[in-house]
């Protein structure tokens, strides 16, 4: 049975797991080729289902056989320990702890394992494992104070969920009580919004000692412990005081209605406090719950008084001259920037590279060659056959599935190729074809590349800094291509990228299109893995590599970029009428137009948002139109309409992409190949 057939039983396996029959799954796996468990998304799903349903023996079987799965993260950044914690499977958790699970990992939203544990209370059933795990994590200060993308620490989450054990243990280990969320909320603010305050205020609130007093007959507020004095408090009307009291009552009611008890709702809390943010109210002065009625009354008076002062000062400031207002706004913007914290705590770079190496090595053990291509000499007057592959991120898997079906129907299709051209992610597919790699193996490689690549590096989603990392692609490239140069390929090849800066040492410093090939006499770096990586360095998604960015910035249609080199006197000098080209796109858009009713009256901002897509789509269509005009029936464009919209940088789409590739009607292209190729 093939690997694909084995993994296709995933639904049967999960049903058995859910019914407590994990031992049967182990028996089935042992009688089949089970390498897919260690390298595919379905294998990860099998592990997660085992953790969720407390199938300890199956978890042990998978981890022992595929150790890299222990800390393997899915596209949401979650590993098996996250699944076990969320489902409170303490047997699984204990096993994973003993296997030295990496608790420094963070999910896509920046939540560490400690964030999740803080949601769960300690009880008799989980006490031993819970304490053991907490104690291990508290040895690492980075984990203790790690903030998710909302700026919440484990202390915030513990306070919100009234988790007294964790909160006190965190404080005993010097957790930072002053760290604020991006909305400026401290752990004490979260404690106030919980159902029950689980710790003394003096341990959490740095402003505990502040006391506000007034001197009889004075028109100014005073402070015995550093509270700001304000000359703006003179001549206050009773109407302002009434407005302040009304606003205080509304704010307290608003907070009460919006209390939440889980980390997933922390964003809702910050939204519910927007009204308070608008009047710059500090939430640490809201009423503290206390068993002492006298203390509660005292704190309430202090809280009301603080609120009134802040409210009135804000009102007075809003009436000041516009110049001061502008300065204050600028100051607040600066403060807001300072509040944004280090967003996500990931595994260390060394740990990640080690894991990447394990995955790449496992893949290389499965390497299969369908038929290695030999060098082919071209004679004048013969057909010159070109295969062109557009870039498309995860959609290059779609191209691989189509090609696999084509060679099944026409086995000698690759044998007749004279030149392969590709860019972006498809550059690696193009090279793999020329190296004679089996298309099923290429699909596995591109699936692994997509799963490991398209995980957020930055919570700012590419606005500030790259969004993803291409480190796994580098590791896989080293394993697959080694020290090969483009000249080592047996057939002609052309891979495009854009050199954005020739460098400060260049007297004619400029930028230029780079059409890397093995058939023209050019002097440049011909390292094959670098050429592929440079072509796939999409701006915003990845950092530039060696000053190069993605080839699709030129035109996401490699044949259009390559044919001038084929027919040119300085290139291959092939007669135009002898060129036969199959150009495979990454799927025509579900909606292949831009609604004129929406865009017709659009302003600059709306156009700027769409401009990048416009440029890519327009240039690609221009390339297709010109190629059809020049080569007529000798040019075939395979770019089917996709039934659903597919994001090029979303690994969740992989299974859907495979299905679309398997179901696509290929009758016309098969007929064209038989008649023309």
Automatic annotation (TrEMBL):
The protein's name: phospholipase A2
One Pfam family, short name: Patatin
Segments annotated as ANK repeats: 150-182
Broadest EC class assigned to this enzyme: hydrolase
Alphabetized Gene3D superfamilies for the sequence: Ankyrin repeat-containing domain (1.25.40.20), Cytosolic phospholipase A2 catalytic domain (3.40.1090.10)
Region (Disordered): 212-231
InterPro entries in UniProt: Acyl_Trfase/lysoPLipase, Ankyrin_rpt, Ankyrin_rpt-contain_sf, PNPLA_dom, Teg/CotR/CapV-like
Domain PNPLA: 387-563
Biological source species: Entamoeba nuttalli (strain P19) (Amoeba)
Keyword Manganese attributed: no
Entry's Gene Ontology BP terms: lipid catabolic process
